[in-house]
């Protein structure tokens, strides 16, 4: 009966109604199937279970949310100390405490802790946020005793082993290096700094502060800050108050003391809108953040009204910022806003990542949309969509004991009161368009906003200056003058004695395993140099071939041809350098697996090298202990020239499959990822190892 | 030594206090509408959330030769609009309600779900009813989704190293004459999809997407009277279809023993998969086989990981697991070679670990850990309305009685060390194994 091919919805429906009538009509009087989606019924008050609360003798507040539907128990201990309590110069300390807490106690090694919790199918972790430090575990309720034993053991007796600290420090340092090449991380870092100034929320871990961490500092931070008085022990799930109390007394009864009460430096007062431009030379994209300090009290309803206003402005893929900046203008992949809460004062921020040429237009549009939500009453359709989402998604966030424990802890720690979790939906639903606008006017401050833009300063400075006063810094946070934005054409003198015809074989090492190989060949005939490189990386199915031609003394790039196969796809790049320009096309694989094609036609100054030739030419660069120099390279994927900075940080011995060599350790920054090259000190120099920072990958000389 | 004693003592203590079942009985109500739609309601007011789940009793196993890939293609078609819902509108309506939704296809069934705040149950039911009664099977939608499916195959299978061995490879033990259903992949053949006409798709819809071939589960925070009224209003007048024929899958254990070499141009290291046909999901041996899979190759402390990855260092990765289905399933063991390890070595090591199970069995501690893992996994998976809906669907489709939702776990907890040894000896034999050796294409002649 439904087998007729129907080409429109209307015909299909008509056929169906006939069919339905024929079959069912004789017995039941059917109501017609509604052609419009049904409307939402009223939201009943959330069935949030009763929260029982008792203060233990040591000042720890025990909160129990009983739910015996399933034998699951989620436990969370939250203390009122976090990274805001990192001593100046030791930023990252609280996070380190969290990372090391589960890595050993006098009774258990790190492996044993992991094996015990896995043996019962549960989980255990610890971590620091800006304001609070928490230890969490979720287990079947029959394992409550084991969970308390493990949690109290790590919280009270963690040994913070030196070797685990060193491992964690290495990971953190690598992550910090990688962050410097990530515009989003840079924007976040300098935005917080501009917003909070000397307040601890404005301070961030650095290489220096990470290097300064010691085991003693980790231990004494933990013993000074992780105290029961004022802290919360939240149990949600299959447990009674009596049992919870017994376990808490038994395992945490001997825990004593109070978390110190600290007054923090005040953040800077509001100032007229100003822009911090973080100069990232050659950047093809800009990362923009606009915002201001913002508290939104619960009591007078501001909190809920701001929720709605923010959702309309930038709270998702059908909010204004996304629809206008991405869908209408096509400037960006995403644009969002948010109002993060902090115990000592939160903030509002709007963010967008856009192409360099439209950076100023995007910033103007962000500011315009922020003003609009403050001055125009939000139309009903947008109010309904925003509230529908906020009210509707909240119940999905409080389904499990883990989710409930987390919501209860936040409500109390952030002084929202326990009723917050019960009434959130009704309060949001009651917000009117006028209230949303009024709250936005109080909380969003586009005229005294902090603006951070990470991008190519040379391309952006003049355009941004037309919007608001601009101060410039580099990615390390060092102040720059306008003149510093112009790339200096450093005429790099190559040491031609070091540039000899040669063929090197490399092993590609991934996580300690040899997973592929590479061969690099340099052929030099007088001034002419040809570089050929092939690389294949096992398991990932990656193969790459590259050939570059150039002349030396002086450097004149000629051609670059590259092809790459990855996962059955192919990306090719063909460039010709001539008459002060580079032309051609470049394909680069994207993280999504897609291939992005860029048509290249750019001006390049004399002496600029193609990015791909650096490794082969490095032996001929002016290497010496302590040397630092800059080389301008063209990066086809970004379609722009950027300076790479080379620093010879020391001389050391390094062992690779081909043997042990005395090398210059050369660190390179300014590329896609920071990296380290190891180049033999003695002539003729060779690169024996290359390792991008923070990646489990290296390329090592095999023969 | 001290540490070992401490750990064992604690383990014994945990064993002593462990009650072996889930708490309580699962409350649900099941009935069938006159048009054949099976309805299961499971009320639970612990969160203001309702999960609506519709399983159509059709998977790739129901496809006929020359028409493979239809079940999965349909999963795509179901989001392309129906009489009262425009293209893409399903997703938008659910998102604006604060909810979540998706669909999945496997060999035995096709599933669709919405997770919504409880006051939007009506929206989820209406959306499911609209597409069950009036899916827009148009040339344009069909053409468009056929291309999307091809792209999906290209991304997920053709362009991932080892993916062909793990998808196409798992169909090899099944004979297309006696078990066509499992002898082809879920995503199907692109030639079959190309040859398909819109009429074929409409026929498939009429046969399998009729209410008498579907099960609707509503779980969570709702009042049964209201839910029943809406279900009657939205689904009651959808006409019953013809009853689809069942499919059969015949297979004789112990008649395998073949090795197939697969060249993979994306892989640069060899890999070995040894698979063993196992009984249908409802068979009692499913339980010991599942626990065996965990002990052999589930996680860091599993036997294969310790012996091949950590100790012998011959494998970059090694694991095992059982995949039971409505009809015959498979237990897989696999290893990806470390640089320099020959596939023959990997295969010998995989078989040696399996032989150890058959000869020496497992320890009490290993069995306890595997049971704990299974049990906590079961409990954690039923925390949410959606988890409960999927569990009910599972038991309604793959067990003799949906009431086994409360007793199945007892069966797992009752598995003994002897059971594990017995199933290892019964199913994990050389004659009952099918081996796939993946060799990087450039060195394909080595073996």
Computed over alpha carbons, the radius of gyration of chain A is 30 Å
How many strands appear in the DSSP assignment of chain B?
11
Task: List the quaternary state of the chains.
Answer: heterodimer
Helix content of chain A: 25-40%
Strand order of the largest sheet of chain A: 21-20-19-18-17-16-15-14-28-27-26-25-24-23-22
End-to-end C-alpha gap of chain A = 74 Å
**Strand residues, percent of chain B:** 15-25%
**What is the SS-derived class of chain A?**
alpha+beta
Number of strands of chain A: 28
Q: Trace the largest sheet of chain B across and list its strands.
A: 1-2-6-3-5-4
Gross geometry of chain B: globular
Mean pLDDT of chain B: 89
Notes on the structure:
The complex is a heterodimer of chains A (703) and B (447). By secondary structure, chain A is an alpha+beta fold. In chain A, 30% of the residues lie in helices and 31% in strands. Chain A contains 18 helices and 28 strands. In chain A, the strands form 3 sheets. Chain A has a 15-stranded mixed β-sheet with strand order 21-20-19-18-17-16-15-14-28-27-26-25-24-23-22. In chain A, strand 15 and strand 16 form a beta hairpin. Chain A is globular and about 85 Å long. With 447 residues, chain B is α+β, with helices and mostly antiparallel strands. In chain B, helix 2 packs across helix 5 and helix 10 (286-297) crosses helix 16. The radius of gyration of chain B is 24 Å and the shape is globular. Chains A and B meet through helix 1, helix 3, strand 5, helix 13 and strand 15 of A and helix 1, helix 3, strand 5, helix 4 and helix 5 of B.
Could you write a compact summary of the structure shown?
Chain A has 703 residues and is of the alpha+beta class. Chain A contains 18 helices and 28 strands.
Outline the fold blueprint.
The complex is a heterodimer of chains A (703) and B (447).
Chain A: H1 9-24, E1 51-55, E2 61-66, E3 72-79, H2 93-100, H3 110-119, E4 123-128, E5 133-140, H4 144-157, H5 162-180, H6 183-196, H7 207-211, H8 215-225, E6 232-237, H9 241-252, E7 274-279, E8 285-294, H10 302-314, H11 320-328, E9 332-338, E10 346-355, H12 359-375, H13 380-393, H14 401-413, H15 419-430, H16 433-443, E11 450-455, H17 457-465, E12 470-474, E13 479-480, E14 502-510, E15 513-525, E16 528-537, E17 542-551, E18 556-566, E19 569-578, E20 581-589, E21 595-603, E22 609-610, H18 614-617, E23 628-635, E24 640-656, E25 659-669, E26 675-680, E27 687-692, E28 697-701
Parallel strand pairs in A: 2-6, 7-11, 7-12, 22-23
Antiparallel strand pairs in A: 1-2, 3-5, 3-6, 4-5, 8-10, 8-11, 9-10, 12-13, 14-15, 14-28, 15-16, 16-17, 17-18, 18-19, 19-20, 20-21, 23-24, 24-25, 25-26, 26-27, 27-28
Helix pairs in contact in A: 2-8, 4-9, 10-13, 10-16, 12-16, 13-15
Chain B: H1 2-17, E1 29-32, E2 38-43, E3 49-56, H2 70-77, H3 89-96, E4 100-105, E5 110-117, H4 121-134, H5 139-158, H6 163-167, H7 190-195, H8 198-208, E6 214-220, H9 224-235, E7 259-264, E8 271-278, H10 286-297, H11 303-311, E9 315-323, E10 329-337, H12 343-360, H13 364-381, H14 385-398, H15 408-413, H16 417-427, E11 434-440
Parallel strand pairs in B: 2-6, 7-11
Antiparallel strand pairs in B: 1-2, 3-5, 3-6, 4-5, 8-10, 8-11, 9-10
Helix pairs in contact in B: 2-5, 4-9, 10-13, 10-16, 11-12, 12-16
